[in-house]
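Dear Dr. V.,

Thank you for agreeing to look over these. As mentioned in my earlier message, I'm a first-year student in the group and I'm still getting used to reading structure tokens, so any feedback on how I've presented them would be very welcome. I ran two proteins. I've put each sequence directly above its structure. The first is here:
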Amino acid sequence: MTERGYRRQQLRLPIGSLLAVGFGGLMLIAVAGVLFAGLSSAQHNTFELLGEKADAAVQGMIDQIDATLRPVEDQARWIADAVASGRVDITDKPSLDGFIHGSFAATPQLVGCAIISTDFRTRRYLRSDGTILEEDVSDDALAVRSLENGRSQTASVWGPPYFVDEIEQPLMHMVSV
């Protein structure tokens, strides 16, 4: 007993219980740490893999578009070079018509071709039925813009795509100088 007559009881915990709780707590902390590290690493790897797959898909689309448009671009340059060098006389309509229709054989992805002169007279060729249309396009904003852009270019350039109601298809145009 103590001076006041009360006896203080001491709390006694068995060592086995203390060790079980201590080691169990440490194990819980270790497992939680490993689980967090594993999940965050898995998330990072998943996002990285998805990013790589997306990049590969986009690059595949770019390659496919390039494979489709590169021959058209090469053909447009070849036609422009033939006109610029004088091998094809742009004023000789029957010769020009045969030349343009012959050029369609090398580029099956083309649906047509147009040649716009500096006075905004255009000669349009359709691949499907061989139609040749000649018209004044001075009031066609796209034709005027394309011709003006072509004057300032030193190389062939692609214009933005646009939708043509008459044939119900989107088209891309190229200004070849």
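The second protein is here, in the same arrangement:
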Amino acid sequence: MRSISHGAPSGLDSRLADGWQVSAGLVRGVQNRQLICCLIAFLSLIAWPGLGYGNEGVTSKNWRNHPEIVEVRNIYKSVREAIDSKKLQKDVREFDYCEPYVDTVRVLYVDHRGVVRNYYFSGGSDDSAMRRDLYYDLNGKLRFAFIQAAAANGTRIEHRIYFSPDGRRLWEMQSYHKGPGYTFPTEWPEEDLIRDPKKAFETMSPCKRKVKKQRASPQGEQAETGSKRGGD
């Protein structure tokens, strides 16, 4: 009597094993492709941060890392580095105080091509004062405004405005550092956001311009004081 085998034929076992290996390989292949796609997407976001924002505007949730704000921040940093390393030509005009909030100082920084990269001006009154510090890109377009203001009652604020290349206000914020408050504007007036800094710098002031005193030469100092040098 023939014995009945309840197991699968050996040939079938081999085919089933091969099938499982193929299926496992396909699964691993899909997983690997998914991993590669995720890695590519992650690296793309690092290389091009703007891809993650699409056409999304600047908001209170994303402004710190939004690509348009990051661009402005980099412009600010590059200008500050150029100023600190004395790569920009500096020109200064100072005036006596004669009227509230008429400029008492104007400072212009220009690059080697004659493009203004930074312009700041300051003035005040009996009870408050402010400085408007403006930064421009390589095309001379206003991209960042940093305003510092203080009042006699102890109030201190900082106001920041980020601009797009076409001059739109991307983001504007004001922060109080101390004091009970003052009537500084929460949306800064356009008249302080200078688009033509060279013209503003050269504009005539109603206040008298300060004349820097010439330092006496060593010979002059000696003649005035009657002092002697060397072994005399």
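From my reading of the second output: Residues 1-8, 217-232 have pLDDT under 50 and may be disordered. The chain has two domains: 26-53, 67-202. Does that match how you would interpret it?

Kind regards,
E.
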